[in-house]
Design a protein that fits this description.
about 300 residues; alpha/beta; single chain; two-stranded antiparallel sheet; 9-stranded mixed beta sheet
């Protein structure tokens, strides 16, 4: 009996550990590995673009954030497609500063709940302003940033950063949706919606398998006001909290917002996914899309 109980506990522990991957620092050895895996050139020859990577958070900290910074620097440097400026300062969102950049990357810059308003959080944390003034100024930051995109700026959103202004319907319409929830981490096979689309050519019609959090979305997501790129089969997932509305969940998409472009990738919660050279190519192609250099079908599929 004791042996049986011990075996059950051992199997349970194994299953739990199999659902998550160990974190690690982006040391020199890891950086060298990513440099070797990264594409040697961009698909589209264009001027070197200036990219602002915003990596500040007030809510959940994703351990992959520093890895993403290094990965983006490598992609830009090796391909010559862009150069990166990383920032943690809310002043980065001032209009006069945004004008210096062709695109912005939201790098897992998760705000705290339940407000889920990154601009409000950062103002509240780093200023002595009254609550009333913070609300006004946070709205101004949101409005100014949305205008930056609509006037031709680009936005790449990585994983949890879909929550930046998670309760704002207006912002959700710009980004393509808001975060709802995710089940436990698990192995999943991510597939292309249309393997002929230029932004998923890297996967050669095979998709990819990795361990990640399967994201579900709400608010503007249900309008499908975007062009989906990647999806997961919901029927193969474990630990769903509620009955899904569809048998698939889109986990990456692109869309227009005025004259600007938005690219979202839910993969990945774990830096191990960056070991896939096809995924690195996918992110480089996504960057060239948001900067306006890689033209492709970004028409919304609609309801």
């Amino acid at each position: 009996m004791k042996t049986k109980i011990s075996l059950i506990l051992l199997l349970t522990a194994f299953n739990l550990s199999a659902q998550s991957l160990d974190s690690f620092d982006p040391n020199d050895e890891w950086v060298t590995k990513i440099e070797k895996l990264a594409p040697n050139s961009a698909r589209i020859e264009a001027p070197t673009r200036k990219i602002l990577v915003f990596s500040q958070h007030t809510g959940f900290y994703h351990w992959t954030a520093p890895h993403n910074i290094e990965m983006l620097k490598i992609l830009g440097r090796k391909s010559g497609a862009f150069e990166v400026t990383n920032s943690y300062d809310i002043d980065s969102f001032k209009k006069e500063n945004l004008k210096n950049y062709d695109a912005v990357v939201f790098n897992n810059c998760n705000p705290a709940g339940p407000k889920r308003d990154l601009f409000w959080d950062l103002l509240q944390k780093n200023s002595n302003l009254s609550d009333e003034k913070i609300v006004v100024l946070a709205n101004e930051y949101q409005k100014g940033f949305m205008e930056y995109i609509s006037e031709g700026g680009g936005l790449m959103i990585l994983h949890g950063a879909i929550t930046v202004q998670n309760n704002s319907e207006e912002f959700s319409k710009m980004t393509g949706g808001s975060f709802d929830y995710h089940p436990k981490q698990q192995e999943m096979h991510v597939m292309e919606v249309n393997d002929k689309h230029p932004l998923v050519q890297a996967f050669s019609g095979n998709g990819f398998t990795h361990v990640d959090e399967p994201y579900f979305f709400n608010n503007a997501y249900s309008d499908y006001n975007f062009r989906p790129l990647l999806y997961i089969d919901v029927t193969k997932l474990e630990g769903l909290k509620k009955e899904p509305e569809a048998s698939i969940s889109y986990v990456s998409w692109i869309k227009r917002h005025g004259k600007g472009r938005v690219f979202y990738s839910s993969p990945s919660h774990n830096a191990q996914t960056l070991d896939n050279p096809e995924f690195l190519q996918f992110l480089l192609d996504g960057m060239q899309y948001v900067t306006g250099d890689l033209e492709c079908d970004d028409s919304p599929i609609g309801k």
